[in-house]
Amino acid sequence: MRKIGLYFGSFNPVHIGHLTIANHMVEFTDMDEVWMVVTPHNPFKKKQSLLNNYDRFEMVRLATATYDKIEPSDIEFKLKQPNYTIDTLVQLQERFPETEFALIMGMDNLKSLHKWKNYEAILEHHNVYVYPRISEGEVPKRFEKHPRIFKVAAPVMEISSTFIRKSIQANKGIRPLLDKSVWDYIDKMNFYS
Q1: Which of 9, 56, 94, 101 has the lowest tally of Cβ within 10 angstroms?
Q2: Is residue 178 part of a domain?
Q3: What is the CATH number for 105?
Q4: Is residue 123 part of a domain?
Q5: What residues make up the domain containing 77?
Q6: Rounded-to-integer distance, Cα 108 and Cα 165, Å
Q7: How many domains does the chain have?
Q8: d(Cα 148, Cα 135) in Å, to the nearest integer?
């Protein structure tokens, strides 16, 4: 059975931190592929600083073009909004019954997983791979030794899309933080400035 890791994000923009995590997951766990799922609008985030869905998807497509085992996914664009992870998982499982889907999330998300819609159902049917992130708060006790939650010793990537957007706005050179094709696209489209 094919194992696919789902790495959700607004990817506004996608940066080398995202690619490093996705690549680490596919190379150092039992996943066959990682799909970078571009989320239209996170119910917990304010919408105004978000580029449109197509442009964010295009940047992920450009960034992953040279990776054999990392794919962009726009599955959530077609789902009713606001959308929840459980709905996406149900859709994917129906569409690809011979595939095992796992979630990839940062430690910060694990700390708030108990607030997610139907999180118990997610953990009943899907593994969760957690990468380290420096963040406040504690992991709830019920997740500490959960049989479906796996902590992966991926590199700690403290790069944020917010920092990149603000830096571009302030006219700072941040090209090393972005795949060249993504930087060229942002530059050409005059995003974030």
Answers
A1: 94
A2: no
A3: 3.40.50.620
A4: yes
A5: 2-159
A6: 21
A7: 1
A8: 22
Distance CA 11, CA 42 (A): 11
Alpha-carbon distance values, 173 to 61, 131, 154, 162 (Å): 23, 28, 27, 15
Task: Quote the Cα angle for 28-156-21, to 5°.
Answer: 45
Domain assignment of residue 188, yes or no = no
Write a three-state SS string for 106-156: EHHHHHCHHHCCCHHHHHHHCCEEEECCCCCCCCCHHHHCCCCEEECCCCC
- Answer whether residue 185 is part of any domain: no
pTM of the prediction? 0.94
Helix ranges restricted to H, the chain:
16-28, 53-64, 85-95, 107-111, 119-125, 141-144, 161-169, 180-189
Per-residue pLDDT tens listing for the chain (193 residues): 999 999 999 999 999 999 999 999 999 999 999 999 999 865 566 666 789 999 999 999 999 999 999 999 999 998 988 889 999 999 999 999 999 999 999 999 999 999 999 999 999 999 999 999 888 889 999 999 999 999 999 999 889 999 999 999 999 999 999 999 999 999 999 999 8
